[in-house]
């Protein structure tokens, strides 16, 4: 049984649909979509800030701090602290 290969445009469409409705998504599903994006060399850009980079859980009510143009987001699941420079 061979897996069906999908084109880059189909992968882009799948990723777009996935991020339109994030509530109720499991870390396993997030990891799968991230792998799909990496396989087809599709940048997630701002979408990657919607989930934890360590445990892949979607941010529900993260602890957010802003100090000196640096946004700090603490994952409520694993406690990982992500920092991003603000524009």
Number of DSSP strand runs: 3
Instruction: Encode the helix/strand succession as letters.
Output: HHEEE
Content-based structural category: alpha+beta
The parts where pLDDT drops under 50 for at least 5 residues are none
Mean pLDDT: 94
Question: Which range does the strand content fall in?
Answer: 15-25%
Helix segment count? Answer: 2
Q: How many distinct domains?
A: 1
Distance from first to last alpha carbon: 48 Å
Biggest pleated-sheet summary: 3 strands, antiparallel
Instruction: Strand order, main sheet: write it out.
Output: 1-2-3
Helix content: 25-40%
**Anisotropy-based shape:** elongated
Alpha-carbon Rg, integer? 15 Å
What are the SSEs and their pairings?
Blueprint (H helix, E strand, L loop, with lengths): L7 H13 L6 H13 L23 E5 L2 E5 L6 E5 L2
Antiparallel strand pairs: 1-2, 2-3
How would you describe this protein?
- The structure is a single chain.
- Helices cover 30% and strands 17% of the residues.
- The chain has 87 residues and is of the alpha+beta class.
- It has one domain.
- It has a 3-stranded antiparallel sheet with strand order 1-2-3, with no helix packed on it.
